[in-house]
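User: Once you have settled down, look closely at the record that follows, taking as long as you need, and be ready to discuss the fold:
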Amino acid sequence: MEKIKMQNPIVEMDGDEMTRVIWQMIKDELLAPFVELNTEYYDLGLENREKTDDAVTMQAAEALKRVGVGVKCATITPNAKRMEEYHLSRMYKSPNGQIRSAVDGTTFRAPILLPGTTPLVPGWKKPITIARHSNADLYKDVEIRVENPGEAHLTADGQDKTVYTFGGPGVALAMYNTDASIYSFARSCFSCALDKGQDLWFSCKDTISTVYDGRFRDIFQEVYDAEYKSAFEAAGIKYIYTLIDDAVARCMRSEGGFVWALKNYDGDVMSDMIGAAFGALALMTSVLISPSGCFEYEAAHGTVTRHWYRRQKGEKTSTNPMATIFAWSGALKKRGELDGNAALAAFGDRIEQASLAAIADGIVTGDMAALTGVKEGVDTETFIAAVRERLEKIM
Protein backbone atom coordinates (compact mmCIF):
# COMPACT_ATOMS: atom_id res chain seq x y z
CA MET A 1 0.00 0.00 0.00
CA GLU A 2 1.32 3.43 -0.95
CA LYS A 3 1.86 5.70 2.02
CA ILE A 4 -0.29 8.81 2.42
CA LYS A 5 1.68 11.97 1.68
CA MET A 6 1.56 15.23 3.65
CA GLN A 7 1.99 18.47 1.70
CA ASN A 8 2.66 20.56 4.80
CA PRO A 9 4.18 19.65 8.17
CA ILE A 10 2.76 19.56 11.65
CA VAL A 11 4.79 20.70 14.64
CA GLU A 12 5.75 17.66 16.72
CA MET A 13 6.56 18.35 20.38
CA ASP A 14 8.01 15.36 22.20
CA GLY A 15 7.69 15.01 25.96
CA ASP A 16 8.61 13.09 29.09
CA GLU A 17 8.57 9.74 30.85
CA MET A 18 5.93 7.11 30.02
CA THR A 19 4.08 9.30 27.54
CA ARG A 20 7.35 9.76 25.63
CA VAL A 21 7.62 5.98 25.33
CA ILE A 22 4.01 5.71 24.14
CA TRP A 23 4.61 8.58 21.71
CA GLN A 24 7.30 6.58 19.93
CA MET A 25 5.19 3.40 19.94
CA ILE A 26 2.36 5.25 18.22
CA LYS A 27 4.68 6.70 15.59
CA ASP A 28 6.34 3.35 14.91
CA GLU A 29 3.24 1.15 14.89
CA LEU A 30 0.29 3.32 13.88
CA LEU A 31 1.66 6.20 11.82
CA ALA A 32 4.93 5.48 9.99
CA PRO A 33 3.67 2.31 8.24
CA PHE A 34 0.81 4.26 6.63
CA VAL A 35 1.85 7.93 6.34
CA GLU A 36 4.96 9.71 5.12
CA LEU A 37 5.12 11.77 8.28
CA ASN A 38 6.09 15.38 7.70
CA THR A 39 6.85 17.03 11.04
CA GLU A 40 8.97 19.79 12.50
CA TYR A 41 10.36 18.09 15.59
CA TYR A 42 11.00 19.84 18.93
CA ASP A 43 12.13 17.91 21.99
CA LEU A 44 10.34 19.37 25.02
CA GLY A 45 11.61 16.61 27.29
CA LEU A 46 12.96 18.04 30.53
CA GLU A 47 16.56 17.11 29.74
CA ASN A 48 16.47 19.11 26.50
CA ARG A 49 14.72 22.03 28.15
CA GLU A 50 17.62 22.10 30.63
CA LYS A 51 20.15 21.80 27.81
CA THR A 52 18.60 24.72 25.89
CA ASP A 53 17.68 26.78 28.98
CA ASP A 54 14.08 26.20 27.84
CA ALA A 55 14.59 28.10 24.57
CA VAL A 56 13.21 25.05 22.76
CA THR A 57 9.74 25.67 24.22
CA MET A 58 9.43 29.09 22.64
CA GLN A 59 10.94 27.78 19.41
CA ALA A 60 8.12 25.22 19.31
CA ALA A 61 5.55 27.92 20.03
CA GLU A 62 6.85 30.10 17.19
CA ALA A 63 6.80 27.10 14.86
CA LEU A 64 3.18 26.43 15.84
CA LYS A 65 2.23 30.00 14.95
CA ARG A 66 3.95 29.62 11.58
CA VAL A 67 2.79 26.09 10.67
CA GLY A 68 -0.70 26.27 12.20
CA VAL A 69 -1.07 22.65 13.41
CA GLY A 70 0.86 20.88 16.15
CA VAL A 71 0.75 17.77 18.31
CA LYS A 72 2.27 17.71 21.79
CA CYS A 73 3.30 14.92 24.14
CA ALA A 74 2.76 15.34 27.89
CA THR A 75 5.59 17.19 29.65
CA ILE A 76 6.83 17.72 33.19
CA THR A 77 6.34 21.02 35.00
CA PRO A 78 9.09 20.67 37.62
CA ASN A 79 8.72 21.17 41.34
CA ALA A 80 11.50 21.05 43.94
CA LYS A 81 11.60 17.25 43.85
CA ARG A 82 11.87 17.20 40.07
CA MET A 83 14.64 19.80 40.13
CA GLU A 84 16.72 17.46 42.24
CA GLU A 85 15.77 14.33 40.25
CA TYR A 86 16.65 15.89 36.88
CA HIS A 87 19.53 18.07 38.14
CA LEU A 88 17.92 21.25 36.85
CA SER A 89 19.53 24.65 37.05
CA ARG A 90 16.16 26.35 37.59
CA MET A 91 12.45 25.58 37.96
CA TYR A 92 11.15 25.84 34.40
CA LYS A 93 7.64 27.08 33.72
CA SER A 94 4.91 24.87 32.30
CA PRO A 95 5.43 24.33 28.55
CA ASN A 96 1.65 24.25 28.12
CA GLY A 97 1.29 27.63 29.79
CA GLN A 98 4.09 29.17 27.75
CA ILE A 99 2.73 27.89 24.44
CA ARG A 100 -0.81 28.88 25.37
CA SER A 101 0.33 32.44 26.12
CA ALA A 102 2.48 32.64 22.99
CA VAL A 103 -0.38 31.77 20.63
CA ASP A 104 -3.08 33.46 22.76
CA GLY A 105 -5.03 30.21 22.76
CA THR A 106 -7.87 28.52 24.62
CA THR A 107 -7.84 24.87 25.76
CA PHE A 108 -10.79 22.71 24.73
CA ARG A 109 -11.20 19.32 26.42
CA ALA A 110 -13.69 16.60 25.48
CA PRO A 111 -14.17 12.97 26.54
CA ILE A 112 -13.58 9.94 24.33
CA LEU A 113 -16.67 7.73 24.46
CA LEU A 114 -15.77 4.05 24.80
CA PRO A 115 -17.89 1.26 23.28
CA GLY A 116 -20.06 -0.48 25.83
CA THR A 117 -19.73 2.17 28.52
CA THR A 118 -22.34 4.53 29.97
CA PRO A 119 -21.47 7.91 31.52
CA LEU A 120 -22.24 8.33 35.21
CA VAL A 121 -24.94 10.73 34.06
CA PRO A 122 -27.12 8.32 32.05
CA GLY A 123 -28.70 11.04 29.90
CA TRP A 124 -25.37 12.11 28.39
CA LYS A 125 -25.23 10.64 24.89
CA LYS A 126 -22.69 12.98 23.26
CA PRO A 127 -19.35 14.42 24.47
CA ILE A 128 -19.36 17.76 26.29
CA THR A 129 -16.43 20.00 25.36
CA ILE A 130 -15.08 22.25 28.11
CA ALA A 131 -13.49 25.53 26.97
CA ARG A 132 -11.35 26.87 29.79
CA HIS A 133 -10.11 30.47 29.78
CA SER A 134 -6.59 29.67 30.93
CA ASN A 135 -5.56 33.20 31.82
CA ALA A 136 -5.21 35.09 35.12
CA ASP A 137 -8.31 34.80 37.36
CA LEU A 138 -7.67 32.91 40.61
CA TYR A 139 -4.42 31.44 39.25
CA LYS A 140 -2.73 34.85 39.20
CA ASP A 141 -4.23 36.16 42.41
CA VAL A 142 -2.46 38.27 45.03
CA GLU A 143 -3.10 37.21 48.62
CA ILE A 144 -2.41 38.75 51.99
CA ARG A 145 -2.68 37.10 55.39
CA VAL A 146 -4.07 39.77 57.71
CA GLU A 147 -3.02 39.49 61.36
CA ASN A 148 -4.23 42.80 62.81
CA PRO A 149 -7.28 45.07 62.55
CA GLY A 150 -7.25 47.39 59.55
CA GLU A 151 -8.65 48.08 56.08
CA ALA A 152 -8.01 46.22 52.83
CA HIS A 153 -8.19 48.44 49.71
CA LEU A 154 -8.40 47.74 45.99
CA THR A 155 -6.70 50.53 44.06
CA ALA A 156 -6.42 50.84 40.26
CA ASP A 157 -6.80 53.47 37.52
CA GLY A 158 -7.26 56.29 40.02
CA GLN A 159 -10.00 54.40 41.85
CA ASP A 160 -9.87 53.24 45.45
CA LYS A 161 -12.37 50.98 47.15
CA THR A 162 -12.41 49.60 50.64
CA VAL A 163 -12.68 45.82 50.35
CA TYR A 164 -13.19 45.07 54.04
CA THR A 165 -12.45 46.49 57.45
CA PHE A 166 -10.85 43.75 59.52
CA GLY A 167 -11.46 43.62 63.23
CA GLY A 168 -8.93 40.81 63.64
CA PRO A 169 -7.09 38.10 61.68
CA GLY A 170 -8.29 37.11 58.20
CA VAL A 171 -7.25 36.93 54.55
CA ALA A 172 -7.53 39.31 51.58
CA LEU A 173 -7.33 38.42 47.90
CA ALA A 174 -7.31 40.28 44.58
CA MET A 175 -7.35 38.97 41.02
CA TYR A 176 -7.61 40.38 37.52
CA ASN A 177 -8.20 39.76 33.83
CA THR A 178 -7.80 41.76 30.63
CA ASP A 179 -10.19 42.69 27.84
CA ALA A 180 -7.69 41.51 25.22
CA SER A 181 -7.53 38.01 26.71
CA ILE A 182 -11.31 37.76 27.09
CA TYR A 183 -11.85 38.82 23.44
CA SER A 184 -9.41 36.12 22.30
CA PHE A 185 -11.14 33.56 24.52
CA ALA A 186 -14.56 34.46 23.11
CA ARG A 187 -13.42 34.25 19.49
CA SER A 188 -11.72 30.90 20.06
CA CYS A 189 -14.90 29.53 21.65
CA PHE A 190 -17.20 30.72 18.87
CA SER A 191 -14.79 29.34 16.24
CA CYS A 192 -14.62 25.96 18.00
CA ALA A 193 -18.42 25.70 18.22
CA LEU A 194 -18.74 26.51 14.53
CA ASP A 195 -16.08 23.94 13.67
CA LYS A 196 -17.95 21.27 15.65
CA GLY A 197 -21.41 22.42 14.56
CA GLN A 198 -22.51 22.54 18.20
CA ASP A 199 -24.19 25.08 20.48
CA LEU A 200 -21.92 27.26 22.62
CA TRP A 201 -22.78 27.89 26.24
CA PHE A 202 -21.06 30.57 28.31
CA SER A 203 -21.75 30.80 32.02
CA CYS A 204 -20.47 32.82 34.97
CA LYS A 205 -22.02 34.62 37.97
CA ASP A 206 -22.57 38.22 36.86
CA THR A 207 -25.36 38.67 39.42
CA ILE A 208 -22.71 38.52 42.15
CA SER A 209 -19.58 39.69 40.32
CA THR A 210 -21.27 42.47 38.37
CA VAL A 211 -18.05 44.07 37.06
CA TYR A 212 -15.58 41.16 36.69
CA ASP A 213 -17.99 38.48 35.45
CA GLY A 214 -20.12 41.13 33.80
CA ARG A 215 -17.20 42.06 31.55
CA PHE A 216 -16.94 38.44 30.33
CA ARG A 217 -20.69 38.40 29.64
CA ASP A 218 -20.61 41.68 27.72
CA ILE A 219 -17.57 40.79 25.59
CA PHE A 220 -19.03 37.40 24.63
CA GLN A 221 -22.29 39.06 23.57
CA GLU A 222 -20.47 41.81 21.66
CA VAL A 223 -18.29 39.34 19.75
CA TYR A 224 -21.26 37.10 18.98
CA ASP A 225 -23.45 39.93 17.67
CA ALA A 226 -20.70 41.55 15.60
CA GLU A 227 -18.77 38.57 14.26
CA TYR A 228 -20.53 35.22 14.62
CA LYS A 229 -24.33 35.59 14.81
CA SER A 230 -25.01 35.14 11.10
CA ALA A 231 -22.65 32.16 10.85
CA PHE A 232 -24.29 30.50 13.88
CA GLU A 233 -27.77 31.03 12.41
CA ALA A 234 -26.64 29.62 9.07
CA ALA A 235 -25.21 26.57 10.83
CA GLY A 236 -28.38 26.08 12.87
CA ILE A 237 -26.59 26.36 16.21
CA LYS A 238 -27.11 28.67 19.19
CA TYR A 239 -25.11 30.83 21.58
CA ILE A 240 -26.54 30.64 25.10
CA TYR A 241 -25.53 32.75 28.10
CA THR A 242 -26.77 31.71 31.52
CA LEU A 243 -25.67 31.81 35.15
CA ILE A 244 -23.25 29.06 36.09
CA ASP A 245 -25.58 27.42 38.61
CA ASP A 246 -28.31 27.27 35.97
CA ALA A 247 -25.79 25.93 33.44
CA VAL A 248 -24.81 23.11 35.80
CA ALA A 249 -28.46 22.13 36.23
CA ARG A 250 -29.06 22.31 32.46
CA CYS A 251 -25.93 20.29 31.81
CA MET A 252 -27.06 17.48 34.09
CA ARG A 253 -30.42 17.33 32.28
CA SER A 254 -28.93 17.55 28.78
CA GLU A 255 -27.82 14.82 26.39
CA GLY A 256 -24.45 16.56 25.90
CA GLY A 257 -23.11 17.58 22.52
CA PHE A 258 -22.25 21.23 23.19
CA VAL A 259 -19.22 23.45 23.91
CA TRP A 260 -19.23 24.96 27.42
CA ALA A 261 -17.09 28.07 27.86
CA LEU A 262 -15.94 28.82 31.41
CA LYS A 263 -13.58 31.13 33.26
CA ASN A 264 -10.24 29.74 34.43
CA TYR A 265 -11.18 28.28 37.83
CA ASP A 266 -14.63 27.15 36.72
CA GLY A 267 -13.16 25.41 33.68
CA ASP A 268 -10.50 23.67 35.76
CA VAL A 269 -13.15 22.19 38.06
CA MET A 270 -15.72 21.30 35.41
CA SER A 271 -13.24 19.65 33.03
CA ASP A 272 -12.29 17.19 35.77
CA MET A 273 -15.95 16.59 36.57
CA ILE A 274 -16.81 15.95 32.91
CA GLY A 275 -13.76 13.70 32.49
CA ALA A 276 -14.61 11.59 35.53
CA ALA A 277 -18.30 11.35 34.62
CA PHE A 278 -17.54 10.11 31.10
CA GLY A 279 -14.69 7.81 32.18
CA ALA A 280 -11.32 9.26 33.18
CA LEU A 281 -8.82 12.04 32.40
CA ALA A 282 -6.84 9.42 30.44
CA LEU A 283 -9.81 9.42 28.08
CA MET A 284 -9.97 13.17 27.44
CA THR A 285 -8.85 14.90 24.27
CA SER A 286 -7.34 18.37 24.50
CA VAL A 287 -6.84 20.93 21.75
CA LEU A 288 -5.42 24.44 22.06
CA ILE A 289 -7.09 26.82 19.57
CA SER A 290 -6.01 30.41 18.93
CA PRO A 291 -8.13 33.15 17.32
CA SER A 292 -5.55 33.35 14.52
CA GLY A 293 -6.14 29.71 13.57
CA CYS A 294 -3.47 27.68 15.38
CA PHE A 295 -4.39 24.18 16.56
CA GLU A 296 -2.32 22.15 19.02
CA TYR A 297 -3.50 18.66 20.00
CA GLU A 298 -2.40 16.80 23.13
CA ALA A 299 -3.54 14.35 25.78
CA ALA A 300 -5.29 15.88 28.79
CA HIS A 301 -3.22 13.88 31.29
CA GLY A 302 0.35 13.97 32.60
CA THR A 303 3.47 11.90 31.99
CA VAL A 304 2.30 8.83 34.00
CA THR A 305 5.35 8.92 36.26
CA ARG A 306 4.40 5.88 38.32
CA HIS A 307 4.37 3.66 35.23
CA TRP A 308 7.63 5.23 34.03
CA TYR A 309 9.41 4.19 37.22
CA ARG A 310 8.05 0.66 36.83
CA ARG A 311 9.20 0.51 33.22
CA GLN A 312 12.70 1.56 34.27
CA LYS A 313 12.75 -1.53 36.49
CA GLY A 314 11.96 -3.68 33.47
CA GLU A 315 8.30 -4.21 34.33
CA LYS A 316 5.48 -4.26 31.78
CA THR A 317 2.94 -1.49 32.20
CA SER A 318 -0.68 -1.17 31.19
CA THR A 319 -0.69 2.55 30.40
CA ASN A 320 -3.69 3.89 28.51
CA PRO A 321 -2.52 5.45 25.19
CA MET A 322 -5.96 6.52 23.93
CA ALA A 323 -5.66 10.25 24.59
CA THR A 324 -2.24 10.36 22.91
CA ILE A 325 -3.52 8.36 19.92
CA PHE A 326 -6.40 10.82 19.59
CA ALA A 327 -3.97 13.76 19.84
CA TRP A 328 -2.14 12.45 16.77
CA SER A 329 -5.36 11.63 14.92
CA GLY A 330 -6.76 15.09 15.67
CA ALA A 331 -3.66 16.81 14.34
CA LEU A 332 -3.60 14.69 11.19
CA LYS A 333 -7.30 15.32 10.55
CA LYS A 334 -6.86 19.08 10.97
CA ARG A 335 -3.79 19.12 8.71
CA GLY A 336 -5.74 17.15 6.12
CA GLU A 337 -8.70 19.49 6.40
CA LEU A 338 -6.61 22.64 6.02
CA ASP A 339 -4.61 21.22 3.10
CA GLY A 340 -7.55 19.64 1.28
CA ASN A 341 -5.89 16.26 1.81
CA ALA A 342 -8.89 13.95 2.11
CA ALA A 343 -6.75 10.82 2.44
CA LEU A 344 -4.90 12.22 5.47
CA ALA A 345 -8.10 13.38 7.16
CA ALA A 346 -9.70 9.99 6.55
CA PHE A 347 -6.65 8.24 7.99
CA GLY A 348 -7.06 10.22 11.21
CA ASP A 349 -10.64 8.95 11.45
CA ARG A 350 -9.48 5.38 10.80
CA ILE A 351 -6.95 5.43 13.64
CA GLU A 352 -9.77 6.36 16.00
CA GLN A 353 -12.06 3.69 14.53
CA ALA A 354 -9.36 1.04 14.94
CA SER A 355 -8.72 2.07 18.56
CA LEU A 356 -12.40 1.90 19.46
CA ALA A 357 -12.73 -1.42 17.60
CA ALA A 358 -9.99 -2.96 19.76
CA ILE A 359 -11.86 -1.83 22.88
CA ALA A 360 -15.16 -3.16 21.52
CA ASP A 361 -13.38 -6.53 21.10
CA GLY A 362 -12.42 -6.52 24.77
CA ILE A 363 -8.75 -5.57 24.35
CA VAL A 364 -8.17 -2.79 26.87
CA THR A 365 -5.56 -1.47 29.27
CA GLY A 366 -6.02 -1.91 33.01
CA ASP A 367 -7.84 1.36 33.67
CA MET A 368 -10.26 0.76 30.79
CA ALA A 369 -10.99 -2.77 32.06
CA ALA A 370 -12.74 -1.31 35.10
CA LEU A 371 -14.85 0.94 32.87
CA THR A 372 -15.78 -1.66 30.26
CA GLY A 373 -16.28 -4.68 32.50
CA VAL A 374 -13.41 -6.65 30.96
CA LYS A 375 -11.84 -8.97 33.54
CA GLU A 376 -8.20 -8.15 32.83
CA GLY A 377 -6.36 -5.49 30.87
CA VAL A 378 -3.37 -5.98 28.58
CA ASP A 379 -0.07 -4.12 28.54
CA THR A 380 0.37 -1.04 26.38
CA GLU A 381 2.33 -2.79 23.64
CA THR A 382 -0.38 -5.44 23.25
CA PHE A 383 -3.12 -2.81 23.05
CA ILE A 384 -1.28 -0.82 20.38
CA ALA A 385 -0.60 -4.03 18.42
CA ALA A 386 -4.34 -4.76 18.51
CA VAL A 387 -5.07 -1.27 17.17
CA ARG A 388 -2.46 -1.80 14.43
CA GLU A 389 -4.10 -5.10 13.40
CA ARG A 390 -7.51 -3.46 13.05
CA LEU A 391 -6.09 -0.41 11.30
CA GLU A 392 -4.52 -2.64 8.66
CA LYS A 393 -7.90 -4.24 8.04
CA ILE A 394 -9.64 -0.87 7.74
CA MET A 395 -6.99 0.48 5.38
In short: The mean pLDDT is 96.
